[in-house]
Amino acid sequence: MPEFFNVLPPADAFEVVRANVAARTEPELIATADALNRVTASEVLSPEFLPAFPRSTMDGYSVRARDTFGASEGMPAYMEVVGKVAMGRAVDVNLATGQTAEAYTGGGLAGGADAVVMVEHTQVVNDTTIEVVRSVAPGENVVQVGEDVRESEPILPAGHVLRPQDIGGLMALGVTEVNVNRRPRVAIVSTGDELVPPSEKPGAGSIRDINTFTISSLVTQAGGVPMPQGLAPDEFEAQREAAVSGIAQADILVFSAGSSVSSRDMTADVIGSLGEPGVLVHGISIRPGKPSIVGVIDGKPVFGLPGNPVSAMVVFGLLVRPTIYLLSGCPEPPEPATVPARLVRDIASQTGREDHVPVKLSRQDGALQADPVFGKSNLIYTLVRSDGMVTVPLDAGGLYAGDEVSVRLY
């Protein structure tokens, strides 16, 4: 049986990818409304000021701030109400000394006004007069022109993954189309004589194909386009044919299964036959997922993931996900969401190996608890029954019940 070679920590394995591939960016102009999770192809500049007019942040009264100086409950300032600035309408009220106009949250200010008095700090005397019982400073309770964004100001850098708030920010400026990079295409080859499509009833010794669909979903979640190549039996030529077809169509090639040192697993040999430089890493210092492969063929990254679904999902998150972002023009992928929790049970480990353990989250006395879901890495419901992963660092001998941990959510 051959030995693993060039076993690396997962972070170092990804650096091997980074050193051997480059972004494969092709800009395309798409509707901003459809751009969630896409990567900007170029810097975006603001086409206008935001807001375009002074806006009130409170319900109250537009005033000239100097007319309120010294006002207090014991000595209020009396002001004449000369109108109101209706929402969504042009300002048609101008203030003279001692005058005010009604203002609404998000609406404009009367002409000549430079502040807004909150309605809570006023008393109505009659239909045309109010008392102001608290002074305001110039600019108080007002958003100024361009305070949010100035015209021609850079608002989003190139290589930025668009979030819901970014979509809203672009729409606020009337940017209804945005240049983004084409989504990387990921070819997926699932291997194994034992695999049958999920629609079939497995016979003796057979199992339904899980990883094609799990990996496809992960690819979509990471901003890529999955391109399943079907099932390939444990035959060199069949696997090589699927790989050649996949890598010709896609930017990334992912094998599911076939990455261990078993005599029947030939992924490394297939990758080595596709082109240069071939296999760069075979074996990663993690559990689960040690028998993983990293390779590059003519500038395109290739991965051999273990067939066990837990292992495949862990390795995908550590290596394939950041590679999809890298090829999208985003060199630093967004960090997965994490939550702090207290560990319920011990997690055993060994120094020199990074362990990734599924955990189930629950709340006790208002605090999050993380309960490890122990199970073999070929059991898909180990993942289904869990909410996220806890990582045991390389230099730790394990984690103990009561430890504060960071749970990486799915």
Please give a quick description of this structure.
The chain has helices spanning 10-20, 164-172, 211-221, 236-249, 267-272, 309-327, 381-384, and strands at residues 27-31, 44-45, 55-56, 60-63, 77-84, 99-103, 115-118, 122-126, 129-132, 142-143, 154-156, 177-181, 185-191, 195-196, 207-208, 225-232, 252-256, 277-282, 286-287, 293-297, 300-305, 338-343, 347-348, 354-364, 367-372, 388-392, 398-399, 404-409. The chain has 410 residues and is of the alpha/beta class. It has a 6-stranded mixed sheet, with no helix packed on it. The chain has a 6-stranded mixed sheet with strand order 16-13-17-21-20-18. It has a 5-stranded mixed beta barrel with strand order 22-25-24-26-28.
Describe what this molecule looks like in 3D:
With 410 residues, the protein is an alpha/beta fold. It has 4 domains: 10-26 and 182-327, MoaB/Mog-like domain (Molybdenum Cofactor Biosythetic Enzyme, Chain A), CATH 3.40.980.10; 27-48 and 155-181, Molybdopterin biosynthesis moea protein, domain 2 (Alpha-Beta Complex); 55-143, Molybdopterin biosynthesis moea protein, domain 3 (Molybdopterin biosynthesis moeA protein, domain 3); 338-409, MoeA, C-terminal, domain IV (Beta-clip). It is built from 7 helices and 28 strands. The strands form 8 sheets. Strands 7-4-6-5-9-8 form a 6-stranded mixed beta sheet, with no helix packed on it. A 6-stranded mixed beta sheet has the order 16-13-17-21-20-18. The model has no long low-confidence stretch (mean pLDDT 93).
